[in-house]
From TrEMBL:
UniProt signal peptide: none
Descriptive protein name: CGNR zinc finger domain-containing protein
Species of origin: Saccharothrix syringae
Domain Zinc finger CGNR: 127-168
InterPro entries on file: ABATE, ABATE_dom_sf, Znf_CGNR
Source superkingdom: Bacteria
Length: 172
């Protein structure tokens, strides 16, 4: 499945923020944003890092298959989104912005991730999820061809399958 490039990148950033350590430093979060090609970004201060950590906690329930997921997304969009416009800053190809380029980084990231999750949910709501391994709280955006992902990583899937295999083997 091919996600809208905006929705895909923004949804992936939303997942990374949700999965980040809630005690992440401003430097950790700046690095995370840069790893997800979020530009322009000079760096976050402690207050901005707290804002993004709080925002990540609010994004987290969107990855659960809850009946109120659309309501949650609409509330996030209402809080963050402005008039969308096409930008070509820093020599980049035309892309959508939902917040002014000169807004503080947390404001831009909130608008970007809320809009990206909305795109992903509208395209295929089953593509956002949380790992099915008991005890794992990691979220993901399923970009697989068949859209049947249930675990955050192959490692989590293997743990579940090995545990199931061992349980079946002890019954005999």
């Amino acid at each position: 499945m091919h996600f809208n490039p905006y929705g895909g990148a923004a949804a992936a950033l939303a997942a990374a923020l949700v999965n980040a350590d809630p005690r992440a430093t401003p430097e950790d979060l700046t690095r995370l944003l840069r790893e997800h090609d979020y530009k322009p970004l000079t760096g976050l201060d402690a207050a901005q890092a707290r804002e993004l950590t709080d925002w990540a906690a609010r994004l987290s329930p969107v990855f659960d298959h809850r009946p109120d997921r659309v309501d949650l997304l609409n509330a996030l969009l209402a809080e963050t989104a402005t008039k969308p416009y096409v930008s070509t800053h820093d020599g980049r190809a035309p892309h959508l912005h939902f917040a002014p380029e000169d807004a503080p980084a947390p404001h831009r990231v909130r608008a970007f991730t809320a809009a990206g999750l909305a795109h992903a949910v509208c395209e295929d709501p089953t593509r956002l999820g949380r790992c099915a391994r008991p005890g794992c709280r990691t979220v993901y955006v399923d970009t697989s061809r068949n859209g049947r992902r249930r675990y955050c990583t192959t490692r989590c899937a293997n743990r579940v399958h090995v545990a199931d295999h061992r349980r079946r083997g002890t019954r005999g």
